[in-house]
Amino acid sequence: MLLRQSHSLLTRIRTVMVAPGGEALGGVIGAFCHMIRTEGFFSLYKGLVPSIVSMAPSGAVFYGVYDILKSAYLHSPEGKKRLQHMKDEGQGLNALEQLELGTIRTLLYGAIAGCCSEAATYPFEVVRRQLQMQARATRLNAMATCVKIVEQGGVPALYAGLIPSLLQVLPSAAISYLVYEFMKIVLKVEST
Length: 192
Prior knowledge:
The chain is mostly helical. It folds into two domains: 1-45, no CATH class; 46-186, Mitochondrial carrier fold (Alpha/alpha barrel). Helix content is 72%, strand content 0%. It is elongated. The chain starts with a helix and ends in a 6-residue tail after the last helix. It is found in: Membrane. It comes from Stylosanthes scabra.
Protein backbone atom coordinates (compact mmCIF):
# COMPACT_ATOMS: atom_id res chain seq x y z
CA MET A 1 0.00 0.00 0.00
CA LEU A 2 2.96 2.29 0.61
CA LEU A 3 3.91 1.43 -2.96
CA ARG A 4 0.50 2.69 -4.09
CA GLN A 5 1.05 6.04 -2.30
CA SER A 6 4.56 6.34 -3.79
CA HIS A 7 3.10 5.63 -7.21
CA SER A 8 0.45 8.25 -6.47
CA LEU A 9 3.09 10.89 -5.70
CA LEU A 10 5.09 10.01 -8.81
CA THR A 11 1.92 10.22 -10.92
CA ARG A 12 1.26 13.67 -9.50
CA ILE A 13 4.82 14.78 -10.29
CA ARG A 14 4.56 13.35 -13.81
CA THR A 15 1.30 15.26 -14.29
CA VAL A 16 3.00 18.49 -13.25
CA MET A 17 5.93 17.75 -15.57
CA VAL A 18 3.76 17.20 -18.66
CA ALA A 19 1.42 20.09 -17.96
CA PRO A 20 1.95 23.11 -20.18
CA GLY A 21 5.37 24.44 -19.25
CA GLY A 22 6.11 21.34 -17.15
CA GLU A 23 9.10 20.30 -19.24
CA ALA A 24 10.80 23.53 -18.16
CA LEU A 25 10.66 22.44 -14.51
CA GLY A 26 13.90 20.50 -14.72
CA GLY A 27 12.82 16.92 -14.13
CA VAL A 28 11.63 15.27 -10.93
CA ILE A 29 13.55 17.56 -8.56
CA GLY A 30 12.25 20.60 -10.40
CA ALA A 31 8.69 19.26 -10.20
CA PHE A 32 9.07 18.69 -6.43
CA CYS A 33 10.35 22.24 -5.99
CA HIS A 34 7.59 23.67 -8.20
CA MET A 35 4.85 21.84 -6.27
CA ILE A 36 6.23 23.01 -2.92
CA ARG A 37 6.72 26.57 -4.14
CA THR A 38 3.30 26.96 -5.78
CA GLU A 39 1.07 24.76 -3.61
CA GLY A 40 3.01 24.29 -0.38
CA PHE A 41 4.83 21.32 1.14
CA PHE A 42 1.66 19.41 1.93
CA SER A 43 0.72 19.31 -1.76
CA LEU A 44 3.08 16.31 -1.87
CA TYR A 45 0.55 14.51 0.32
CA LYS A 46 -2.66 15.24 -1.59
CA GLY A 47 -4.78 12.11 -1.62
CA LEU A 48 -3.01 10.50 1.33
CA VAL A 49 -6.19 10.06 3.41
CA PRO A 50 -8.11 8.01 0.80
CA SER A 51 -4.97 5.92 0.18
CA ILE A 52 -4.59 5.13 3.88
CA VAL A 53 -8.31 4.46 4.34
CA SER A 54 -8.28 2.01 1.42
CA MET A 55 -5.34 -0.03 2.76
CA ALA A 56 -7.25 -2.16 5.29
CA PRO A 57 -10.16 -3.14 3.07
CA SER A 58 -7.82 -3.73 0.14
CA GLY A 59 -5.70 -6.24 2.05
CA ALA A 60 -8.70 -7.81 3.75
CA VAL A 61 -10.49 -8.42 0.46
CA PHE A 62 -7.32 -9.53 -1.36
CA TYR A 63 -6.28 -12.13 1.21
CA GLY A 64 -9.80 -13.01 2.30
CA VAL A 65 -11.09 -13.85 -1.18
CA TYR A 66 -8.00 -15.93 -1.97
CA ASP A 67 -8.26 -17.85 1.30
CA ILE A 68 -11.99 -18.48 0.79
CA LEU A 69 -11.42 -19.79 -2.74
CA LYS A 70 -8.44 -21.90 -1.66
CA SER A 71 -10.28 -23.36 1.34
CA ALA A 72 -13.38 -24.14 -0.75
CA TYR A 73 -11.26 -26.00 -3.31
CA LEU A 74 -9.22 -27.92 -0.74
CA HIS A 75 -12.43 -29.10 0.97
CA SER A 76 -14.01 -30.18 -2.31
CA PRO A 77 -13.74 -33.80 -3.49
CA GLU A 78 -11.31 -32.73 -6.24
CA GLY A 79 -9.16 -30.81 -3.76
CA LYS A 80 -9.11 -33.69 -1.28
CA LYS A 81 -8.08 -36.01 -4.10
CA ARG A 82 -5.24 -33.64 -5.08
CA LEU A 83 -4.01 -33.39 -1.49
CA GLN A 84 -4.08 -37.19 -1.14
CA HIS A 85 -2.13 -37.56 -4.39
CA MET A 86 0.46 -35.06 -3.16
CA LYS A 87 0.75 -36.94 0.14
CA ASP A 88 1.20 -40.28 -1.66
CA GLU A 89 3.87 -38.92 -4.02
CA GLY A 90 5.70 -37.16 -1.19
CA GLN A 91 9.15 -35.81 -2.02
CA GLY A 92 8.97 -37.07 -5.63
CA LEU A 93 7.18 -33.88 -6.68
CA ASN A 94 8.94 -30.70 -7.75
CA ALA A 95 8.01 -27.35 -6.17
CA LEU A 96 5.40 -26.47 -8.83
CA GLU A 97 3.77 -29.89 -8.47
CA GLN A 98 3.61 -29.34 -4.69
CA LEU A 99 1.34 -26.30 -5.05
CA GLU A 100 -1.85 -27.28 -3.22
CA LEU A 101 -4.01 -25.61 -5.84
CA GLY A 102 -1.81 -26.34 -8.83
CA THR A 103 -0.28 -23.64 -11.01
CA ILE A 104 -3.33 -22.64 -13.05
CA ARG A 105 -5.74 -22.56 -10.10
CA THR A 106 -3.24 -20.53 -8.00
CA LEU A 107 -2.94 -17.98 -10.81
CA LEU A 108 -6.70 -17.90 -11.34
CA TYR A 109 -7.58 -17.49 -7.65
CA GLY A 110 -4.90 -14.82 -7.24
CA ALA A 111 -6.31 -12.92 -10.21
CA ILE A 112 -9.86 -13.17 -8.84
CA ALA A 113 -8.70 -11.96 -5.41
CA GLY A 114 -6.85 -9.03 -6.98
CA CYS A 115 -9.86 -8.04 -9.08
CA CYS A 116 -12.21 -8.18 -6.08
CA SER A 117 -9.81 -6.09 -4.01
CA GLU A 118 -9.38 -3.50 -6.76
CA ALA A 119 -13.13 -3.24 -7.37
CA ALA A 120 -13.85 -2.88 -3.64
CA THR A 121 -11.37 -0.05 -3.12
CA TYR A 122 -11.42 1.67 -6.50
CA PRO A 123 -13.67 4.57 -5.40
CA PHE A 124 -10.89 5.60 -2.98
CA GLU A 125 -8.50 5.79 -5.93
CA VAL A 126 -10.90 7.99 -7.90
CA VAL A 127 -11.26 10.36 -4.94
CA ARG A 128 -7.48 10.38 -4.41
CA ARG A 129 -6.85 11.30 -8.05
CA GLN A 130 -9.45 14.06 -7.91
CA LEU A 131 -7.85 15.47 -4.75
CA GLN A 132 -4.45 15.51 -6.44
CA MET A 133 -5.77 17.39 -9.45
CA GLN A 134 -7.54 20.12 -7.48
CA ALA A 135 -6.25 23.66 -7.72
CA ARG A 136 -5.27 25.30 -4.47
CA ALA A 137 -8.07 27.88 -4.65
CA THR A 138 -10.84 25.28 -4.99
CA ARG A 139 -9.43 22.55 -2.72
CA LEU A 140 -12.03 20.28 -1.08
CA ASN A 141 -11.53 17.57 1.53
CA ALA A 142 -11.89 13.87 0.67
CA MET A 143 -15.53 13.58 1.71
CA ALA A 144 -16.58 16.74 -0.14
CA THR A 145 -14.69 15.52 -3.22
CA CYS A 146 -16.50 12.17 -3.07
CA VAL A 147 -19.89 13.90 -2.77
CA LYS A 148 -19.03 16.19 -5.70
CA ILE A 149 -18.06 13.19 -7.88
CA VAL A 150 -21.35 11.42 -7.08
CA GLU A 151 -23.41 14.60 -7.65
CA GLN A 152 -21.80 15.15 -11.06
CA GLY A 153 -21.78 11.59 -12.40
CA GLY A 154 -23.67 9.38 -9.98
CA VAL A 155 -22.20 6.36 -8.21
CA PRO A 156 -20.82 4.94 -11.50
CA ALA A 157 -18.45 7.93 -11.63
CA LEU A 158 -16.63 6.41 -8.64
CA TYR A 159 -15.77 3.48 -10.90
CA ALA A 160 -14.62 5.45 -13.96
CA GLY A 161 -11.53 3.72 -15.33
CA LEU A 162 -12.00 0.48 -13.38
CA ILE A 163 -11.66 -1.84 -16.41
CA PRO A 164 -8.15 -0.65 -17.41
CA SER A 165 -7.15 -0.80 -13.76
CA LEU A 166 -8.40 -4.38 -13.48
CA LEU A 167 -6.43 -5.32 -16.58
CA GLN A 168 -3.31 -4.04 -14.84
CA VAL A 169 -4.07 -5.69 -11.47
CA LEU A 170 -5.12 -9.08 -12.85
CA PRO A 171 -1.68 -10.38 -13.93
CA SER A 172 0.08 -8.72 -11.01
CA ALA A 173 -2.14 -10.35 -8.39
CA ALA A 174 -2.04 -13.72 -10.13
CA ILE A 175 1.74 -13.77 -10.34
CA SER A 176 2.20 -12.50 -6.77
CA TYR A 177 0.14 -15.40 -5.38
CA LEU A 178 1.95 -17.93 -7.54
CA VAL A 179 5.33 -16.64 -6.35
CA TYR A 180 4.08 -16.51 -2.74
CA GLU A 181 2.86 -20.12 -2.76
CA PHE A 182 5.95 -21.30 -4.68
CA MET A 183 8.36 -19.62 -2.25
CA LYS A 184 6.54 -21.15 0.74
CA ILE A 185 7.38 -24.55 -0.75
CA VAL A 186 10.96 -23.70 -1.73
CA LEU A 187 11.71 -22.16 1.68
CA LYS A 188 9.78 -24.92 3.46
CA VAL A 189 7.49 -22.50 5.27
CA GLU A 190 4.46 -24.19 6.79
CA SER A 191 1.17 -22.32 6.62
CA THR A 192 -1.06 -22.40 9.66
